[in-house]
């Protein structure tokens, strides 16, 4: 059994707790929290432990999955805990990945542990598909579309507008753009041509709806470059119809192998729950981290470095006979 | 530069020759043939060499891509040439892969070379996506659909019928089945519900068309379990509209991460030329074989064993900053 720890019990931590139940060779041993452990109720028969006591678990856990946020948690936590554990994170601030990689790599090499960072679906499975697309069709174009799904960042941005009580924002790929890419037309697409944004907003009583709508659709970076639709709905309707966290998207590589011979590789995800799916990816890569470290590998890795067979509990013979 | 050799100059060999032109770090050094070299005209400025003289190229080639067939060529060639070269093949007789693996592994371990077998898209990229789907969504169902594309085996089977001059058979996935799978309905599908078969047949003058059609649609293993449509057309029309070798298909994994929370992962290919695309996959993996062997790895590998980063000529830093 691979002994797993979770640090941070939000959506992602709960997702890992769930994912463990579907993996017979992995057992959850503890949930670590920065909160008062007595206030955290988990859905498994495992202890909730203060992160201050985590060092006592050094030899009781094989892999620690860090379930914090990329803004302030992971840049500190991943290098810190790579000093004691094999670690997995979902660090997703693209432009800061090289710096994060360097910090984690140093810590993990010093401790003889292995870390795999920036896992999930983007960065993660989508990155992997961009890589495969590029090496197989070097003469081609990449397209990544996101959605239909909830953007937490955009929902938050709307909630900060005066007069808004609650809000949910969906990112939606434009069908015409997808169709053109799939047809191998290799279009040049502007931001506006790729995605639309749909907002469901609960306004405070007496709020100026016209003003709220205007502030949304003109908001720089978030909405001004998109065609945005705003719907005002009741709190009840928001809870009833927009409580989920679905997401997904498409990575498409279109390219040729000789004049006039085009190929289209498409990878797509349709996820009922963004955090649960991300957690499932983290859990599979925890298995790989454990096995690679056991073989003597140390330092920081990304999804690009991991031989796919290490993700599976099956032997090579089983993989060959059942999946090849 | 990675120095490449091709053995066998059919569709696949020509495809590799093409693919090399799109990969700046790979150069084609020689085409080896079992035919009289003087009768083989290639599209590159490289020597055509009798396979009998291949041993003289032992130190002049880094990777040999074997472009023969799976029925009789590769079971002999891959172990044979793994004694001298790092080798790549597209062996696709699923049930014989374990035996082939064993033979190639022994030869390559003895010689200190590295072999990667059963590459292409199925087995190959589709296998990889089956693996990823299974490890990320352990509680789910796999679906593989092929087409729309030309099945060489089925076309050949029709051509063997008395009165048939020429024929082309397309395998076509059933839309309703694809839609149901994509909707996460996890249907149980019979062979008939997954694919239909469409045949374009050129009959000999005076042939009994009703009889040909009957022989096709009732042919055991090939057609009897499918809904099959037969069109009789002229030789001109066959050449004009059905000369290509397009193919493709879909690998879909549908599964849940908790009660009521379903996810669909879909990987699809739409290929103008089946052999050219397959060749592009072989060429990318030739790079990986070269690099892995240089690092001291030997023996037989499959697509499951190769860290994706080894497929790319980019450094890890470049991959992280451009694709992660």
Kindly summarize this structure in a few lines.
The structure is a homodimer of 324-residue chains. Chain A has 324 residues and is an alpha/beta fold.
Shape of chain A: globular
Identify low-pLDDT runs of chain A.
none
Strand content of chain A: 25-35%
Subunit arrangement of the protein? homodimer
Number of strands of chain A: 14
**Order of strands side by side in the largest beta sheet of chain A?**
3-2-1-4-5-6-14
Largest sheet of chain A: 7 strands, parallel
Helix content of chain A: 25-40%
How many helical stretches of chain A? Answer: 11
Biggest interface, which chains? A-B, 65 and 65 residues
Strand/helix succession of chain A: EHEEEHEHEHEEHEHHEHEHEEHEH
Radius of gyration of chain A: 22 Å
C-alpha termini separation of chain A:
26 Å
Explain what you see:
The structure is a homodimer of 324-residue chains. The radius of gyration of chain A is 22 Å and the shape is globular. In chain A, the strands form three sheets. Chain A has a seven-stranded parallel β-sheet with strand order 3-2-1-4-5-6-14, with helices on both faces. In chain A, strand 5, helix 3 and strand 6 form a beta-alpha-beta unit. In chain A, helix 1 packs across helix 10. Chain A has 324 residues and is of the alpha/beta class. Chain A is built from eleven helices and 14 strands. The first copy, chain A, starts with a strand and ends with a helix. The longest helix of chain A is centred in the C-terminal third of the chain and has 21 residues.
């Amino acid at each position: 059994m691979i002994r797993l720890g979770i640090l941070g019990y939000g959506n992602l931590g709960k997702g890992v707790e769930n994912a463990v139940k579907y993996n017979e060779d992995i057992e959850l041993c503890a949930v670590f929290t920065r909160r008062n452990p007595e206030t955290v109720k988990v859905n498994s028969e495992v202890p909730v432990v203060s992160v201050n006591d985590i060092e006592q678990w050094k030899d009781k856990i094989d892999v620690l999955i860090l379930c914090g946020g990329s803004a302030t948690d992971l840049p500190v936590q991943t290098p810190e805990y790579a000093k004691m554990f094999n670690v997995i994170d979902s660090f997703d601030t693209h432009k800061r990945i090289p710096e994060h990689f360097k910090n984690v790599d140093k810590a993990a090499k010093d401790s003889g542990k292995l870390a795999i960072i920036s896992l999930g679906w983007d960065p993660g499975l989508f990155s992997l598909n961009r890589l495969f697309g590029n090496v197989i069709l070097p003469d081609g174009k990449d397209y990544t579309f996101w959605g239909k799904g909830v953007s937490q960042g955009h929902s938050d941005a709307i909630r900060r507008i005066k007069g808004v009580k609650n809000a949910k924002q969906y990112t939606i790929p434009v069908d015409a753009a997808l169709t053109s890419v799939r047809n191998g037309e290799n279009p040049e697409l502007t931001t506006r041509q790729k995605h639309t944004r749909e907002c469901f907003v609960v306004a405070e009583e007496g709020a100026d709806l016209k003003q709220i709508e205007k502030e949304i659709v003109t908001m720089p970076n978030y909405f001004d470059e998109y065609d945005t639709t705003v719907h005002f709905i009741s709190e009840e309707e928001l809870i009833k119809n927009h409580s989920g966290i679905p997401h997904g998207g498409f990575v498409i590589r279109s390219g040729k192998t000789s004049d006039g011979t085009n190929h289209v590789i498409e990878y797509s995800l349709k996820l009922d729950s963004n955090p649960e799916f991300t957690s499932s990816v983290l859990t599979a890569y925890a298995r790989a981290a454990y096995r690679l470290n056991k073989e003597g590998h140390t330092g920081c890795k990304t999804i690009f470095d991991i031989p796919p067979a290490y993700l599976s509990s099956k032997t090579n013979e089983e993989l060959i006979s059942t999946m090849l």
